[in-house]
Design brief:
About 45% of the residues lie in helices and about 10% in strands. The protein is an alpha+beta fold. Bound molecules: alpha-D-glucopyranose.
Length: about 475
């Protein structure tokens, strides 16, 4: 028989409260593994990923006291907030160690870390992209780390941890790295392909939306975490200069709705100078009008995936768009239009399993060239338009932020159906197919952020006040 909302919540908590998901270091829980699938090779899924820990950490902050079930069945009481504090401290320490090995002292947070044991001694080993498949750079990790640190302060009611000198220094160094001079003049961050949740080649090189939305959120969080004192003066000024520039730029240049599309359709090209309307020299023929004019209906709109010289990537990327709503990067009007688009495209974006990571998929020659023939990212699969249950929490957060009660009700009904599937299929990492009806071909089972993302959506929907952990005023 189908489980109800409450039964699903209880079942998800029961699963996530098992000791096997926790990573222990010096006998202290400091994070969670990416997945507990014993049937597939672990690769790096036995590591604690910073981005994967975000929904888990938020959930632990909300829940507070956790009862963890040990392998033999005995129960252990753990403080969820303490796990998040341990996580923040240990990742900070990894950052400090890695810093000392660089020339400038500037380095990103690792994508993931693992506890290694040698001769009875434990140490943590971070993966800063130096071990990752295809050696991708985890730009999002540092940004998420700052966002989680702010959430920790909100949940505990104090920024004492963030105000410690080592934390202050770490925030400043991360921001310095983001602000450092590069061969690029935009207020956005220039990053390589695969620098975020989509950690494989997918044609994201440049100024990919997800990174810009996280950058914006991390900048806003930093202003709350860095008190206005002598040591922070320079960096606060840099943040205050960058924030409005970044915000205006994204709101204007990334925005796509029917009106904007009509402008792009009739763009004049080869314009020179500061007054150029077609700043990036977009050739209208590069725009995929065939699907876009059908997909983008009146009243809907979203941020494009990427913008660069003669490039406007019109794919819809879920994480970047939803983070933009939650963090106030969109104007209130843009937020409403974005939620309207999700409403209009519910079937394609939500399907049977919330929610598509992007839409539409790369196909044919585009797939060959942009992914490098990556079989894992065939169309409608994995990062190339697969459905990722972890994204449900961001959808819930965005619907709550915009007051779309009707969407929340719809989501609740769909989540009951989806939750029953997830439970029966042991919480897979992702789903494939146009409407997310196939269990991801390579998906791990017992994927931690699948369980946590789903539960976090439930917790947010059941208790609106939790939204303040991640949201910002418009
Ligand atoms: C995959 C995902 C990445 C995630 C990792 C661990 O590589 O693309 O976003 O962090 O698995 O779950």
């Amino acid at each position: 028989m189908e489980k109800t909302w409450e039964e699903l919540k209880a079942a998800a908590w029961q699963e996530l409260s098992q000791d096997k998901y926790l990573v222990y270091y010096d006998e202290q829980p400091i994070g969670t593994v990416a997945a507990c699938d014993r049937e597939k090779a672990a690769l790096n899924y036995d590591q604690c990923f910073i981005r994967d820990f975000i929904p888990v950490g938020l959930l632990f902050l909300i829940k507070g006291n956790l009862t963890i079930t040990r392998p033999q069945g005995e129960e252990n009481k753990v403080d969820g907030q303490e796990i998040v504090r341990n996580f923040l401290k240990e990742t900070l320490r990894l950052h400090q160690q890695a810093r000392s090995k660089t020339f400038t002292g500037l380095i990103l947070m690792p994508a993931s870390f693992k506890v290694q044991s040698e001769n009875g001694h434990q140490h943590l080993e971070g993966d800063f992209g130096d071990r990752a498949i295809a050696r991708v750079t985890p730009v999002d990790s540092s940004l998420w780390w700052i966002i989680l640190l702010r959430a920790y302060g909100k949940a505990t009611g104090s920024n004492i941890l963030a105000y410690q000198e080592d934390f202050q220094e770490c925030i400043r160094l991360i921001l310095e790295l983001c602000f450092s001079d590069r061969f690029d003049r935009e207020p956005t961050l220039l990053v390589p392909d695969g620098a975020c949740m989509i950690d494989r080649r997918m044609g994201l090189y440049g100024h990919f939306l997800e990174i810009q939305a996280l950058f914006f959120t991390a900048l806003r969080a930093s202003l709350e975490l860095l008190p206005d004192n002598q040591a922070n003066q320079k960096i606060r000024k840099a943040v205050l200069d960058r924030l409005p520039a970044l915000q205006d730029y994204i709101r204007h240049d990334y925005w796509l709705d029917m009106r904007r599309l009509n402008d792009v359709y009739r763009f004049k090209v080869e314009q020179y100078g500061t007054e150029a309307l077609n700043k990036f020299n977009i050739y209208s023929d590069s725009i995929p009008y065939d699907w876009l004019t059908e997909w983008l209906k009146e009243g809907g709109g979203y941020f494009a995936g990427n913008i660069g010289p003669s490039q406007l990537d019109c794919r819809f990327f879920t994480l970047g768009n939803l983070v933009a709503v939650v963090s106030g990067l969109t104007t209130p009007e843009q937020s409403q239009k974005m939620m309207k688009l999700i409403d209009q495209q519910w079937k394609t974006l939500i399907g049977q399993m919330p929610m598509k990571i992007c839409y539409p998929p790369l196909k044919g020659r585009d797939w060959e060239l942009l992914t490098g023939h990556d079989p894992k990212n065939k169309q409608w699969s994995y990062h190339n338009s697969g459905n990722w249950p972890v994204l449900t929490w961001l959808l819930a957060a965005a619907a709550l932020k915009t007051g779309r009660q009707d969407l929340l009700e719809r989501l609740e009904l769909d989540m009951v159906k989806a939750g029953n599937i997830l439970l029966a299929e042991s919480w897979p990492e992702y789903y494939d197919g146009e409407f997310g009806r196939l269990t991801g071909r390579e998906a791990r089972k017992f994927q931690t952020w699948t369980i946590a993302g789903f539960l976090l959506a439930q917790e947010l929907m059941d208790n609106l006040s939790c939204l303040e952990l991640v949201s910002f005023d418009d």
